[in-house]
Amino acid sequence: MAQDIKNSADFRTDDIIIAFMGPTGSGKSFFIDLLTRQPGKRACNTPRSVTQEVEAIRIECPGDVHGRSIVLVDTPGFDDTSRSDMQVLELISNWLVATYKHQVTLSGLIYLHCITNNRMAGHPYKNLRIFGELCGDVAMSQVLLVTTQWQRLVEGREVGEARLGELKDKFWKPLIQRGSDVDALREATSEDAWRVVTTLVERRRNLRQAILLQQELVDSGVTLKETYAGQALYTDYQRKLAEQKQHMKSLLGKVEALKGAGLQKDALQKEYNLIHQEFEKTFGEAKTLKRSNFERLVSLLHFLTKPKAVCGSGSLGGEAVQLSLTN
Fold it and tell me: Can you tell me the distance from the alpha carbon of 97 to that of 319, in angstroms, rounded to the nearest whole number?
């Protein structure tokens, strides 16, 4: 029977704790529904985010000779429909800090990617980059990269296999080189979901390592905006602001080119106003992550002796680019 865990103090020392992360819509809640054999309890057929908080569920670990339980941790994805990326990062970091202070570390992390996505740009790329910065090099050996929603592939399994190959050879390569493994939930069944989780548990049975974000916030005592994950998010905000600014400039030029009033001009003006509102919102969120020169110096002193993030050296860093996956 599944048991919700509301307090970090309720974790047991022998719990096998697996956290699920990935973009909104990648199937985190659906995956957990398969594991708990409770179809539709957490996931539903909607593009909107289902998970609003970090949720932990304890269930019996089938086949474990030691009688241990497994704790499945569902996390909200970035690009959440009801909150900002900064709020999502704060939710995840608060949970990680609270558990770490109770000497609770993760047994593994499963990062999900929807195989139906034929482009690795925008939201999927940003989620992957922040995930890499959040984990850091050392914890990469606890990560399992899993593709989901194979049952929704209308192009056929061959296309899915080609996309998976490109993910491994290009986008996931820096994580794989640092110890991450790859798997696929090809069948939307409880049996296949447990096969994936059991594979991770068996490979990492006695391995527990604090992830980089926990070390930064608790051991080093830096603020969230000074962490690698915080700065990765700040970089994405800068990219987003540049795109919105260019969009507004283009719309303004079109509006000014139209002489007199008209439906087309009104529509363009309305679109401009909407983009401007989004720009102001993004600017406000980015401002909370901007560091002062003093904070930059403090961060440098902290990180000189700390493990580097996976993407900190530039393997996934910098501006996100529009790169197509196999059609």
Answer: 29
Dist. CA 247–CA 272, nearest whole Å: 8
Asked whether 35 and 59 are in contact (CB, 8 A), the reply is: yes
What angle (nearest 5°) sits at the alpha carbon of residue 78, between those of residues 75 and 83? 90
pLDDT tens across 201-223, in order? 887 666 778 999 999 999 999 99
Cβ–Cβ under 8 Å, residues 237 and 282 = yes
- Coil, strand or helix: which one is 306? coil
- What CA dihedral angle connects 45, 46, 52 and 56, to 10 degrees? 20
> Quick check: 14 and 68 in contact, CB under 8 A?
yes
pLDDT band at 192 (very low <50, low <70, confident <90, very high): very high
Phi then psi for 213, rounded to 5 degrees? Answer: -60, -40
Rounded Cα gap, residues 238 and 258, in angstroms: 31
The three-state secondary structure class of 214 is helix
Tokens at 324, concatenated: 């197509």
Q: How far apart are CA 7 and CA 95, in angstroms?
A: 10
For residue 268, the surrounding DSSP H or E stretch is: helix 263-287
* Cα distance between residue 66 and residue 69, in whole Å: 9
Spatial separation of the C-alpha atoms in residues 39 and 32, rounded to whole Å: 9
